[in-house]
Amino acid sequence: MGGQGLSLSELVVERGGRSVLDGLTLSVPAGHIYALLGGNGAGKSTALFATLGLLPVVSGQVLVDGKDPASQPDAARASVAYLPETVALYEHLTARENVDYFLSLAGQSCTKAQIEEAFAQVRLNLAAQDQRLGAFSKGMRQKTAIALALLRQTPVLLLDEPTTGLDPQATQDFHALLLDLKASDVAILMVTHDLLGAVDVADTIGLIIDGKLASEWQAESANPRFDLQALYGAFTQARVGHAAA
Ligand SMILES: Nc1ncnc2c1ncn2[C@@H]1O[C@H](COP(=O)(O)OP(=O)(O)O)[C@@H](O)[C@H]1O
Ligand SMILES: [Mg+2]
Q1: Of 153, 155, 189, 182, nearest to 31 (Cα)?
Q2: Are 59 and 168 in a shared domain?
């Protein structure tokens, strides 16, 4: 995979008549995990929608593996997989049928062996693969969606609050999977509320306040990877500031 990663430059996006993103700049190289933190309404999901080309950009630019969703929508969309905050899969279809169906929507077909390999990679056992989604836990739905994202083999992956509602074991499994994807050179942008989780897996942590990047921290090569106290301070201050506004 590899490629040129993801970059947002001076991005301005309006929703409901006001700037929700107000000059957001960040970049995620291939093989890098970027955790974007911020309070409710800070503009995190909006940043992902703009990256997917689902919202018009007032000014600035998005480049998904070098492609601008505004001018090259098809090429940009083919380069990015997205795990929404609420995984939208079909309840009455099995995990395998869901994956088959959504791959065909993306214009792709995979062999049975490839699909089973992806399920094995996300540790969704063989019996579960043929069960209907209706019976799945949140963690199992997440695994199904990640298997789909893996099969898409896109150079860029967007995740919106992927660990919200997962138990600690499922969160740990999920992070292990992100590290596998990082090793295969995917550029990963993850929106999260989970500061401790971000500290575990991210190479860069960014804090977004009112549609702008307020601070950014790079992981150190040695432990501790991040100054947790500084991060915690900035993060709680952002929330307090926002609540007071
Ligand atoms: N569909 C919408 N129409 C108008 N404004 C919206 C819409 N969705 C979100 N917003 C506004 O955009 C801002 C950022 O929302 P969002 O990107 O969802 O924040 P986050 O994901 O950081 O919680 C919020 O203030 C919200 O009110
Ligand atoms: Mg959101």
Answers
A1: 182
A2: yes
Please indicate, yes or no, whether residues 184 and 73 belong to a single structural domain of this protein: yes
**Tell me, what's the pLDDT at 149?**
86
Neighbours of 104 (CB within 10 A): 11
Sign of CA pseudo-dihedral 161, 167, 172, 173: negative
Same domain membership, residue 98 and residue 11: no
Q: Say which residues have a Cβ less than 8 Å from residue 115's Cβ, sequence separation at least 6.
A: 96, 99, 100, 147, 151
Whole-number Å distance, alpha carbon 162 to ligand 2 midpoint, is 11
The average confidence (pLDDT) of the chain is 92
CA–CA gap between residue 170 and residue 148 (Å, rounded): 18
Model confidence at 237, in pLDDT bands (50, 70, 90)? confident
pLDDT value at position 244?
52
Ligand 1 pocket test target in 11, 19, 20 with most atoms within 8 Å of CB: 20
Q: Which structural domain, as residue segments, surrounds residue 141?
A: 87-153
What digits encode the pLDDT tens for the residues 161-210? 988 878 888 888 889 989 989 999 999 999 998 899 999 999 999 999 99
Nearest to 24 by CA among 38, 120, 16, 33: 38
Same domain flag for 147 and 221: no
Express each pLDDT in 2-55 by its tens digit. Answer: 599 999 999 999 999 999 999 999 999 999 999 999 999 999 999 999 999 999
183 and 111 in a common domain: no
86 C-alpha vs ligand 2 centroid, how far in Å? Answer: 10
Tokens, residue 56 = 């018009």
